[in-house]
Write a structure and sequence with these properties.
The complex is a heterodimer of chains A (about 325) and B (about 290). By secondary structure, chain A is mainly alpha-helical. Chain A is about 70% helix and about 5% strand. The two termini of chain B are about 30 Å apart. Chain B has twelve helices and no strands. The chains are: A mainly alpha (about 325), B mainly alpha (about 290).
Chain lengths: ~325, ~290
């Protein structure tokens, strides 16, 4: 390569005898480029997880940082407390419900946005905004419109549809809290699916459809044989990411219901947070975190075995 | 294409009939998207311009008619506390974007162009980072940050948020740089450019869509973040928008809904502008197909 030979004869540079060293220059440079990532990753992912694992083996009071060795007692406690299994189940319901709904809505929005002719740019911007605005704003609006006193959706639901009582707060009712959380989350996070799938749709050349039309294909056949195969690869990736994100979701649940009413919307992240700050059991919370991580890791491995998202879809452009 | 199916439209419709049904479905879908997508933004806007006494009343108003219209709600933006929250959020967002773009560009280039052992596995391990919930990382990070003095600083939050956006951004950049023909760089080397020159003048300008996509992803994360800020910025006076406003609502102070909506509108406008002007780059940058 030209650069490597050219550099050593330039004046004013220290000469490094790459040919005599056991490592190649390219290896050093390559490793060098990923060092910042590795440092950040160690600091934010590996170190906290190791810390969490170590802490989970201790009895720790949140406000009194005195660690007492407890062995696996925290894990035994986690598996025995009734709220854990309930939270795991609610977490799975929330994850599966949200992911399926978001996938359906997101794909549908992408297909429509790809085909409309007028106002496409503006509508796409409005749709994308949903993903970019802070979750807290979505929560504020949701709390406002479901407010029992002056919320417009509360009023529509109570007076026109008869879903809940006139002075009842839907977000505080056992029947509705979980469904509403999934719906409100979908408004915001379905756009994540839309962004990825729309990017794929834009990349399909028109001539594919023209050729299919000449061959006498109808719209369904075109969708099945041209559009869908192009989308499958990214859909498996997006489903994985969305499931993980929804399972780990804490902010929107905490802002809207704080896990209530009772434990009706307490998923595992909410349970872990409550264990730290309400029950003051720092060690136990870390045990919950580790169990959560192991659960996700096992699920992800199974998912990879079933769908293999790293396999590139064969496409000829 | 299978030849066994009879030619013509779905359900035996003629081509014209099929097109008409398709157009009608498209129109209905568009109407629903406009209604559902734009509605909350409209609701924020109309409440932000309505006098707060009216908003506090137990009536539903749908439009700020002249007798209840006001700009007065926006005075909340000059409130020193709210101003601090928003300023902190902006600083954190910019810091995260800069860190993420720089680090992911360099790492993405290394993964795409330089050969070093275990690089495929490196990228895969990086993606495992996504299995950690912010809450799982945040709870231990509180103690770690406390012991090294980063707790309660914007810098500490920027580091945490950058690391969270990093796996995805690196992956995006890596896959994108792979689509740029290596011949472009080789041509520069032949003309005597160093690898760094080739990177700076050949690769980076072509990466613009991926840079914008990564920046937007980092922006969305930082602008959205509640969990990390809630845990890592415990003092009320140094925190960012999301936890700050939730705490302000919890305390008994004067903060009517109309004011909240005025702040929300101010926080919604930058993303809306980004989404409008950057969408073509964004969609190009996200054209990655597999892990």
């Amino acid at each position: 390569m030209a650069s490597e030979t050219g550099e050593s004869i330039r004046p004013g540079r220290t000469y490094i005898p790459w040919d005599d060293l056991p490592v190649k220059r390219e290896t050093v440079a390559g490793v060098g480029t990923v060092i910042p990532v590795v440092v950040l990753y160690l600091l934010i992912a590996v170190l906290p997880i190791a810390f969490a694992f170590w802490a989970s083996l201790h009895e720790i009071h949140t406000l009194n940082p005195e660690w007492q060795w407890a062995g696996l007692a925290n894990y035994r406690e986690v598996l025995n407390i009734s709220t854990f299994w309930g939270s795991l189940w609610r977490g799975i319901v929330y994850m599966v419900g949200s992911t399926l709904l978001q996938l359906g809505v997101g794909l549908w929005m992408a297909l429509v946005l790809n085909r409309i002719t007028r106002g496409q740019k503006l509508l796409t911007a409005v749709v994308f905004t949903a993903y970019l605005i802070p979750t807290i704003i979505v929560s504020l609006v949701a709390m406002r419109v479901f407010d029992p006193a002056s919320g417009v959706f509360q009023m529509i639901g109570a007076e026109w549809l008869g879903l809940w009582g006139g002075r009842e707060a839907p977000l505080g009712s056992r029947d509705w809290a979980m469904q509403l959380l999934i719906l409100i989350g979908t408004w915001k996070f379905a756009v994540f699916v839309t962004i990825f799938t729309l990017a794929q749709l834009r990349a399909i050349p028109d001539r594919f459809y023209e050729a299919a039309k000449v061959c006498g294909a109808n719209r369904w056949q075109m969708f099945r044989d041209i559009t869908l195969p192009r989308l499958m690869g990214i859909v498996t990736v997006v489903v994985l990411l969305r499931s993980v994100f929804m399972f780990n979701k804490f902010d929107i649940i905490w802002q809207l219901t704080e896990g209530g009413p009772g434990n009706a919307t307490t998923t595992l992240p909410v349970l872990a947070y409550k264990t730290v700050y309400t029950d003051q059991a720092y060690g136990l919370a870390n045990a919950i975190s580790v169990v959560m991580f192991l659960f996700l890791l096992a699920s992800a491995i199974i998912y990879f075995q079933l769908f293999n998202p790293s396999e590139e879809v064969e496409t000829t452009t | 294409m299978s030849q066994s199916e009879s030619p013509g439209g779905i359900f035996g419709l003629s081509y014209d009939g099929e097109t008409r049904v398709f157009e009608a479905l498209k129109l209905v879908s568009t109407a629903i998207i406009v209604l559902v997508g734009a509605w909350p933004i409209y609701w924020i806007t109309q409440l932000a311009f309505t006098e707060y006494e009216t908003v506090e009343d137990d009536v539903v108003t749908v439009f700020p008619t002249p007798d209840i219209f006001t700009f007065g709600n926006f005075t909340v933006l000059t409130d020193p506390e709210m101003y601090t929250y928003m300023f902190n959020t902006v600083v954190v967002a910019i810091g995260t974007i800069v860190t993420v773009v720089l680090v992911s560009l360099i790492a993405g280039y290394g993964l795409a162009r330089l050969d070093f052992p275990q690089k495929e596995n490196f990228a895969r391990i990086l993606l495992i980072g996504y299995l950690f919930s912010p809450i799982v990382i945040g709870i231990p990070l509180y103690q770690i940050w406390q012991s090294i003095g980063l707790l309660g600083t914007r810098f500490g939050l920027i580091i945490a948020l950058s690391a969270i956006s990093m796996p995805f951004a690196v992956w995006l950049m890596w896959k994108y740089i792979m689509t740029i023909p290596a011949a472009h760089e080789e041509a520069a080397w032949v003309d005597g450019a160093s690898r760094w020159r080739g990177f700076r003048d050949v690769v980076v300008p072509q990466c613009r869509p991926a840079i914008i996509a990564a920046a937007l992803f980092a922006f969305a994360l930082a602008w959205n973040d509640f969990t990390f800020a809630q845990i890592l910025l415990p003092q009320t006076d140094t925190t960012t928008f999301a936890p700050g406003i939730l705490r302000a609502m919890g305390q008994t102070q004067f903060l009517p809904d109309a004011y909240l909506m005025a702040i929300s509108l101010a926080m919604t406008l930058p993303p809306l502008l980004f989404a409008y002007f950057m969408q073509s780059y964004l969609l190009k940058g996200f054209q990655v197909r597999a892990l």
